[in-house]
Records
---
Amino acid sequence: MVNNPALAIHDLYKSYGPVDVLKEISLSINEGDFLVLVGPSGCGKSTLLNCIAGLEETTKGKIEIAGRDVTQEPPRDRDIAMVFQSYALYPTMTVAENIGFGMKVRGESKAAITDKVAEVAGLLQIAPLLDRRPSQLSGGQRQRVAMGRALVREPALFLFDEPLSNLDAKLRVEMRAEIKRLHQSTGASIVYVTHDQIEAMTLATKIVVLKDGYVHQIGTPEEIYDRPANTFVADFMGSPPMNLVPAEVSDAKLNFGTGQSLQIDSADSSSVSAGKITVGFRPELMELTPPEADSIPVTVDMVEMTGADSYVSFKLGNKAVTARTPGRFHIGEGGQAGLKFPAQSLHYFDAETGNLVS
């Protein structure tokens, strides 16, 4: 028996007049996957979600849900449930009525609705709120109700459109954990849109990074973080983002300028050609020590204490970079430090295309 993907998109385009908003989109997820569409504002992620939902017509391409071609199907026939950032609750209905409304419209029995609403309310820990109206709820409680209304559907695919963007920072963290727990307990297939790369990294089993309507990389959170396909992904995914510094390759050395150079690791030497290159490295994979003979000399520009970590800023060549060091950093601003990199912690990107070389 062949299991069809929960979602498969083939060469999808979406245009508004002469403007192509989505281009060459192809991706798929298996049943139980949590796919996160991430990218900056205007990259096309919400448009893609609306195409999956049937709220936007596609210009070209095919969309399959659970093995069924739904490209021309209206939203009601796609076997999906959607959770919006605005909650979209009925203000005159109670929580229980909001959650069970879809079942009522489908003509299911009162007993079935009551049982299902109670089950979902228990799962979302909102059972004590069932008799309240939306105006009596906090933002986090409203979002739980919106999720409950989607869960009673038991669809082939759940679609989340930036569901946490209206919540404050503390509540976002709590609800992020709630959504992750919900996914683990239900095994639901989810497509989730966000511009927040922390949400993407913590929730996803698979991430799609979009920019200007194109897919720039598809992979697990670990793949996206550890081996970004290009400088855009490297700069977008990570907090702080990956440092990207221009360098010149000569005699198996990286020359950053201003007397700063580094021997290229022997494992990378065969794939890094002489000439200009962009070197990438994560802030937490940099080692700062008092100046040593085998380290790159740097001058500390600024130290930011965050409690558990310190962010140390300095220049490599003419580019400002940031290192993330555990605990307190004891070399003050204006002081001299030595920079080292663990083996194979550097990424090399083509200076012109920005694509990963090694």
Note: The chain has a mean pLDDT of 92.
---
Amino acid sequence: MPVTNIHYHDLIRRDADVLWHPYAAAPVPIAPYAVKSASGTRLKLHDGRELIDGMSSWWAVIHGYNQPRLNAAMTAQLQDMAHVMFGGLTHEPAVLLAEKLLAITPPGLAKVFFSDSGSVAVEIGLKMALQYWVSRGLPEKKRLLSLRQGYHGDTFGAMSVCDPVNGMHYLFSDLVMPQIFAEAPRIAFSGSWDESAGDEIAALIETHHHELAAVILEPVVQGAGGMRFYHPAYLKKVRELCDRFDVLLLADEIATGFGRTGELFACNHARITPDILCLGKALTGGYMSFAATLCQDFISETIAHGDPGVLMHGPTFMANPLACSVALASIDLLEESNWRNSISNIEGWLRTGLEPCRTLPAVRDVRVLGAIGVVETRDLVAVEKVQEILVANGVWLRPFAHLCYTMPPFIASEDEIKQITAAIYSALA
């Protein structure tokens, strides 16, 4: 039954009757805003209002909504097949996409395993690491070292490597595998590097390397755990430590991949290649839920020669042709655009527009990197009140905890960034 004629308030009521939203109570205490359509950077609500989407729908819609090239890629693929199982079968979009990903990601990665979401990509990366050591005859190397204030997803393996206090998963602390945590990197992205900043994680790796399967981290940008930007030299230091003590390095670039930080991948800021790389979110330009876990050859070869000789994971919708096709089109569109210039411009506009927030008594810090702008508040953000002000100013953002932040589409104009930053100032003032 089409929903185009449902009255706005009736739609919100019916939503509360049947739906459960992410990180929300059911029934929903804060009524959601109903979207009727989206185009470019704009969300059109059922009641006729238009909002600039300063969130890129949780960082994924980098080219904007209703993009003709991406629409065409999905439509063309529909003429051949929408889906086919990947167990024992293959198809051209999957092969082409895997080849493309290996060509643009840090050098040395050699195999691609597709899945349905970022959390699952992390689960697969953890399985790769654990199964690698079993295949090498070292099953005792089964723990992970993660960073505090990190976030890697909501499934059980991913929860275990999220910040155990601030990672939104404290209710499950007795049920997940206990891992080892290093303090969050303390030197900011643009700060002066001090070699001692790596002492703590160096000591942890040296002490626990006999039981460590991998170090997992978000390169340069810690996302949902606090929106923190840290020095690339820290990432390079961890790569060196993993090599020295025979520990795998797993980089979670689900949020940072595909240009968001000013480099195509955040690992490039430190010029390092992880052993395992997780991608998602912007992989399809926000069109479909899709993810990938990449690894170096020695991992896949070691697992192939172990018992049972195969990676023990198999998503039903693995390498979905529609998702592969739109991902290919999204990467082509990104490569053909002057994306570095776009990110540089957005970074400059965000710095200028958010700077006045530093004068507000409620604000602890303002930070910008690439197409990411963050205002950290002293107290918890009053989400409902702040969102009302943002929406009244024609902007959609999703504040949480102590953060009001924006990760706009790469096509956002200077005027749109000005409107976003002005709305943030108004809301926090």
Note: The CA atoms of residues 386 and 427 lie 5 Å apart.
---
Amino acid sequence: MALPRFAALPAALIAGVAAVIFFMPPPAGVSVNVMHTGGLLVLVMGLWATGILPEALTALIFFALAVLLEVAKPEVIFSGFTSGTLWLVLGGLVIAEAVRMTGLGERVARAALGTRVWTYPQLVTAAVLVAVVLAFLMPATVGRILLLVPILAAVAERHGLAPGTPGHTGVLFAVIVASFQCGTAILPANAPNLVLAGAAETLYGVQLIYAEYLWAQFPVMGIVKGALIVVIVCWMFPAQTRASGLAAELRPMSGNEKRLAIIVLVSLALWATDFLHGIRPGWVALAAAVVAMLPRVGAVPATIFQERIKFGTFFYIGGVLGLGAVMLDTGLSKAIGDALLAVIRLEQGADAENFITLSVLSTVASMIVTNPAQPALMSPLAGDFAQATGWPLQAALMTMAVGFSTLLLPYQAPPVVVGMQMAGLRLRDALRLTVPLALISIFALIPLHYLWWRVIGYFGN
């Protein structure tokens, strides 16, 4: 596969920097293997951040080089595949495809939007609410965006908002950005969440509980940020709606839809009560996927597993989790953590300053390596951060989510880029939403998030 001409130079630069680090004599107190792992980290993170190669191919490159270079034992390199989170990804891929294939997702969206004519602020609010509701039902962000963009485009046109007008653009940006950003507050809903949960389990043996994650993140990252998206869209893309045709009536639910709805609702109930029964979300998702594909009992044919499921995300997250484990095993994460702690100030008892510092650091890391890859870079450092701040390890890990929930530039979130391409939206229009949203998130929502965690006692003191 030949690289596009514009990608050849960045690829060469990334490979060159990685090679320099790989062969560089180690500083005092640092092993040769740490330098080798550092070179591998730069190569893999660079390829993920720039998107020069497909994410799954970069993950396979990591597996191959890590094994051939013997930077760690195979059981460490491939440890992500033993994580329940990775099986949550697989189950989520099956359920997301089933929701789309049976028409259940479209039904939920159309039922929520109804046939009435909304005012423009009401329509934008409805678009964000549909994105949030579907995030609970459909784990794959790309799947939700691919499902919702054509539906919302048709709804916008029905309200007199023609393609290319500010109103049409605003409605589509609302549903695309909310699908990703509000989804970061729901554990199975986004790739970065799953990477964080898998890293916590793989690196520290810590299981992020669905209900705990929702309680800690959703009030600010879900509710407040969703409302903020509505306000900024209505401000930046003002419009007025008018009636322009009626929506088609919903057909009666098929048997497959009914069975899938039951499977999804039972899964949601088990996810939300995992703190009671102790069944991990990954095993719930895997069981739901199996039941959904069973003959007569399920909702979709088992052939979708070979024909419709795209396994790129599965191997990508497996690679991200393995990279984090290798960083921890080789001591690279400790070396990076020591360097960061020498630069940033973290003091026990200074919870507000510590929270803002780590949240901003996580946000900057997301801009460098993209949001999905950020937990792989930052999670191995959480142990050092927890020790320096005196927080529980879960609190240090959860600040990573505060960082990757902030989207300054669309390239940070591949699903957002996919949605923009599908809808024919321009980058400069996207920046009118993402830049103000990111700035308000950094200067207002991060302090608000700190206050919420203080109220619920999440800092453990």
Note: The mean pLDDT is 86.
---
Amino acid sequence: MFLFFRELLHNIYISICDLYILTKLQKNNPTCKFYGGSKITNSLFGYYNIVFNDVLIDSCIVGDHTYIQKKTTIFNATIGKYCSIASGVSIGPGIHKIDGISTHPIFYLFNTPLIKKYSNKDLFVSSEKTIIGHDVWIGERAILIDGVVVGTGAIIAAGSVVTKNVAPYSVVGGVPAKVLKYRFNEKEIDFLLKSEWWNNSEEWFEKNYHLFTSTTQFFEKK
């Protein structure tokens, strides 16, 4: 019975701490919305971000208007503006050493949440920064391995496992993910990348949002 109440009090304490962190995060980012159950540490946000329920984010930078759906986990990543990240996505899940006798981190990491560790220092880099460009759509349950670079405008199909860099405006899918097609031709992709439309002001978007429903209108306007 004692152990039950001790665990209950511990869980209540953790919940209060998480709520305090979210409340402080909301105060520091008044244009953003952070839903309950999310745990966010060592991360910076832009304007108008939404982080839905039960999201875990650590050591990340998130650009303006990017939203992250429930039960997604993101470690050590830089994410651009206007990105759409679906539920259950895993970005930067970590790297294990595979050329030793064991793959267990107890033998080669010191900075780890493991209860016991044998190594007295980190002998291996267990995380590499993942870079995601602007206007990227990542489908449900996709996994992006540490260190990949996802180009602006790319689409990653649901359930895909991304193990290598993704070209701008490509659509990739599968395990491992492969290019299925490109959203635009080379000339149009070059035009879009050079336009850097994602850096326009809020006033510009409010006036010209209708251009985004038609590629013809957009290319003529820009």
Note: The CA atoms of residues 4 and 178 lie 49 Å apart.
